[in-house]
Design a protein that fits this description.
Blueprint (H helix, E strand, L loop, with lengths): L2 E9 L2 E6 L2 E9 L2 H11 L3 E6 H6 L5 H10 L3 E5 L5 H9 L4 E4 L1 H5 L1 H11 L4 E8 L2 E4 L4 E6 H10 L4 E6 L11 H10 L4 E5 L5 H9 L4 E4 L1 H4 L7
Parallel strand pairs: 1-4, 1-12, 4-5, 5-6, 6-7, 7-10, 10-11, 11-12
Antiparallel strand pairs: 1-2, 2-3, 7-8, 8-9
């Protein structure tokens, strides 16, 4: 069964969603992310994906206190990303209760540091963030496009021991336009051994079922939940 991972994106301590990563297209869904996390737990979810959007923009962790409150007031397994650029940042995330961290920009800009973290903390605790726009990896809160293509980028790190990959198709994120099925099928065909987490565009139960039918191991969703487009039974 596909792993279902709801998402909480945080700006100014609030639970928000952006459209295509655009900070000017922000919708606030709740002023208290802890309450949202507790609701997910009550519904029966085990995992939670948290993105510190303030951190992604400012290039250092900002909302670690929100993370600490969520991990102390729920039993959810939390993966946390956004703004993790230094040894202090990653240690701060784990100290605040994250079970895993999602690292994207550093994997592009400082391969040696990323591989050092992979070796220090282990492949089970590190998720490679592969945010894609026009086939190229995007970094720093999706503000910058790199010159790295997705599949060679993945190959480099899979060869280094990466097991978990969160792949977001930026053009679909927050649009409710359906997931990038062809992209995820291509990734799974090349690297069937990875735990691929699909992200971006999920709009319905049918989208999740299509991902499961395609053999995608896990899915992150946010806006579809907040706008009542996913039913849970």
């Amino acid at each position: 069964m596909i792993e279902l991972i709801p998402a909480i994106d945080i700006i100014n301590g609030q639970c928000v969603r952006l459209t295509k990563g655009d900070y000017s297209q922000k919708t606030v869904y709740n002023d208290n992310p802890v309450v949202v996390a507790q609701h997910f737990e009550q519904l029966g979810f085990k995992r939670l994906h948290i993105v510190d959007l303030d951190g992604a923009k400012s290039k250092h962790i900002v909302n670690d206190e929100v993370l600490r409150r969520i991990t102390s007031e729920t039993k959810l397994i939390v993966d946390f990303g956004g703004g993790i650029k230094t040894d202090d940042d990653i240690e701060k995330a784990f100290a605040a209760g994250a079970s895993m961290v999602t690292i994207g920009s550093v994997a592009v800009t400082d391969r040696e540091r990323f591989i050092g973290w992979l070796q220090k903390y282990g492949a089970d605790k590190i998720i490679l963030g592969a945010d894609v726009r026009g086939g190229m990896i995007s970094i720093n809160g999706w503000k910058e496009d790199s010159q790295q293509e997705l599949l060679p980028f993945l190959k480099y790190y899979v060869d280094k021991g990466v097991k978990n990959v969160l792949c977001t198709e930026i053009s679909r994120d927050g649009t409710l336009s359906g997931p990038a099925m062809d992209l995820y099928r291509k990734v799974m065909a090349e690297y069937p051994e990875i735990h691929l987490i699909a992200s971006g565009g999920v709009s319905s139960n049918e989208d999740i079922e299509a991902l499961e039918a395609a053999g995608i191991p896990a899915v992150v969703f946010g806006k579809a939940f907040y706008e009542g487009k996913i039913t849970f039974k």
